[in-house]
Write a structure and sequence with these properties.
By secondary structure, the chain is mainly alpha-helical. The protein is about 65% helix and about 0% strand. It has a domain of about 80 residues: Four Helix Bundle (Hemerythrin (Met), subunit A).
């Protein structure tokens, strides 16, 4: 067993452990952190398969943006864990069936050399100096241009739908017109109001007009 195969099994063991902890962790923050570990490990496996572009996209997009957003939302929301655990056993058969289907598909892909003919299994290696990023871009704009455009349209529709669902009506805003402020005169800013003076209806106090006697 060479060193590359040893690294593959090492990363695969960490990936399986992290994926298991994602669905078994009681704390949602721990589940998100284990999912980040799973993505990092999957990026390492893709590097071993010489898919550097996919590994870079996985780290930059999913871990750098999506998972940080997930972690922020999970930490800000008050999640009721007891309520989430109530429907766990009810959805367990469906989850087990979906897991078995995914495992079967992965087994068919990874064990292709045992299920297909030797002519299909022994594919020629990539030529030296060929960029897989350039080849991927060429396939997206040539052979898979219609699925690529359809995916872009679906993502655009999802963004518009999310904005429409979150829109709660136009809020009234105070607008200031600088032209009207400049045209204001001094007389318009100051207004003098004449008000009648207040009078006291009470009789004036009696004043002793007699001079004081000298002591």
């Amino acid at each position: 067993m060479d060193f590359k195969t040893l690294l593959f099994f090492f990363f695969s063991a960490i990936l399986l452990f992290a994926a298991l902890r994602v669905i078994t962790a009681k704390n949602p923050v721990h589940a998100v952190l284990n999912l980040i570990l799973a993505f990092f490990t999957a990026a390492g496996i893709w590097l071993l398969l010489e898919a550097e572009f996919l590994a870079m996209v996985l780290v930059m997009v999913y871990i750098g943006a999506v998972m940080v957003l997930f972690l922020f939302v999970v930490m800000m929301l008050d999640i009721d864990l007891d309520r989430l655990r109530q429907g766990f056993w009810r959805y367990l058969p469906l989850g087990a069936f979906v897991g078995l289907v995914v495992a079967l598909e992965m087994a068919l892909v990874l064990g292709g050399e045992y299920f297909y003919s030797s002519a299909d299994a022994n594919l020629p290696a990539a030529a030296a100096g060929v960029s897989n990023t350039r080849e991927l871009g060429a396939l997206l704009v040539s052979r898979y241009v219609y699925p690529f455009e359809l995916t872009a349209a679906l993502l655009l529709m999802a963004i518009v739908a999310a904005v429409a669902l979150a829109f709660r009506g136009k809020k009234p805003a105070r607008r200031v017109d600088p032209a009207e402020q400049i045209r204001v005169r001094a007389a318009d800013r100051l207004r003098i109001v004449h008000m009648p003076t207040e009078t006291d209806d009470a009789p004036p106090a009696a004043i002793d007009d007699q001079p004081e006697k000298d002591a």
